[in-house]
Amino acid sequence: MSNNFAAIADRLKFNEQGLIPAIAQQHDSGEVLMMAWMNRDAVIETLSTGRVCYFSRSRGKLWRKGESSGQEQHLVDFRYDCDQDTVLVQVDQKGVACHTGRRNCFYLAVRDGAETIIAEPEVSVETLYGAKH
After folding, report:
1. Nearest to 43 by CA among 34, 55, 56, 30
2. Which residues in the chain come in under a pLDDT of 50?
3. Which positions fall inside the Phosphoribosyl-AMP cyclohydrolase domain (predicted)?
4. Global pTM?
5. Which residues are annotated as a binding site for Zn(2+)?
6. Is residue 27 part of a domain?
7. Residue 52: inside a domain, yes or no?
């Protein structure tokens, strides 16, 4: 682990649960893919390995994007905002980013006052995770 990566993680302002919001954006198109949470260890692992790692609140552990689906995110650029309380990871997304099989997680929109699905799955959940998911 690089001391620089630990020092960068120490600059970030994590919430009371030790988490910071992380927005994933496709590096070349600017498409916003998803939002997840990182803890200090996830930040350091992401910077150290170049493979994006988050903290799963439901599982209570580190979650390496694509470890069960193969839909990996490779880090291109790691940024944080002026308040150091939000992270932007610009990534090269392999496959789809959303666990529903869609390219990104922002497929619900309000159109004419109603919730509207604006993107259909590109791959089935069964294909991503197997029949048990």
Report:
1. 55
2. 133
3. 34-107
4. 0.91
5. 82, 98, 105
6. yes
7. yes
